[in-house]
Amino acid sequence: MKLRHNLRQLQIFQEVVRTGSLSQAARRLAITQPAVSTAITNLESEVGFLLFRRNHYGTQLTPEAVHLAEGVDKVLASVGHLDELTDGLRDGHAGKLTVASMPGLSPTVMPRVMARYLVDFPDSRLSLQTFSSRKIAEWVAEGQFDLGVIESDAAIEELVLEEYRLCMALAVPEGNPLVEKASLSPADLAGETIITLDQHHQSTLKLAGAFQQVGMTLQASIETHLFPSVAMLVNEGLGIALIDPVTAEAMLARRDCHLRIVPFTPTINLDVALVTSRFHPVSRQGQRFMPYLAAELAAWQQRSQDRYAPGA
User: Fold this and answer.
1) CATH 1.10.10.10 occupies which residues in the chain?
2) CA-CA distance, 200 to 209, in Å (whole number)?
3) Digits of tens for pLDDT over the chain (312 positions)?
4) What is the CATH number of domain 7-90?
């Protein structure tokens, strides 16, 4: 049988069960006793069996009503949880927010942002995913991630971008005399071993362009995939490399750091972007999280310019 009773009938039934009295249930619910009686009568008609028997001691549940009361308690508890969930979703602190980050920022910038966010919204559920910028761009566009941080050159048309420019600098082994200079240019790197990311990465392309402007050719002796790997290669004294400011700061904080960071002329920026989907709306929690992430990226942009721009 399909039950067509409404939640209000179930709430009234539950209160009569709890109080053992139609009149007490009416007082607890701030309604009239006839309204309680009508609701119970209608519910009995719908379920097809008697719910209460009246005797000298008050209102007694039938055996069928005892079993029904257990089910009603579960239903109304679920409704209460649903109310909490909808309130949370409306207020932006329910559900899980999935944020994706390019590898260079994932171990440093993102945990800091998430920690600050969770101080203000401790009940939030967050998921941090680390993938290549290209994968993040595709999956944010498809709505698989709420938002992401990528290198701008990986962006696609289906994304909305908020762009930032992180001023890069040269990582130089501490025993190299070049660490004494206020800034370095392509000419200073003549004869030095150069370490880069792959030849198609924006940092490598921009560095090659800077060399070409002064009639030089960039010749990388070592290539690798990630900036932290680049920094560690420099730390081992294997060469000089252009690295992003986040990796530079993380490296300088290590006890086993054996490199120095020197500004490079001309300025080369790592272009990154906070991205959302153009066609999939950002959740309320995502909208609330974005200012925290945007503020952190803006701070890194300013910090990198202050510390590593030539003449800073």
Assistant:
1) 7-90
2) 12
3) 344 458 888 888 888 888 878 888 888 888 888 888 888 888 888 888 888 887 766 677 788 888 888 888 777 776 665 554 455 555 554 458 889 999 999 989 999 999 999 999 988 889 999 999 999 999 999 988 899 999 999 889 999 999 999 999 999 999 999 999 999 999 999 999 999 999 999 999 999 999 999 999 999 999 999 999 999 999 999 999 999 999 999 999 999 999 999 999 999 999 999 999 999 888 888 999 999 999 999 999 999 999 998 766
4) 1.10.10.10
Q: What angle do CA 226, 231, 236 make, to 5 degrees?
A: 130
pTM (2 decimals)? 0.70
Count other C-beta atoms under 10 Å from residue 300's C-beta: 23
Q: Count of CB atoms within 10 A of residue 56's CB?
A: 4
Residue ranges, CATH 3.40.190.10, the chain = 96-165+271-308, 169-267
Place of tokens 């209000």: 8
Does the domain at 96-165+271-308 match CATH 3.40.190.10? Answer given as: yes
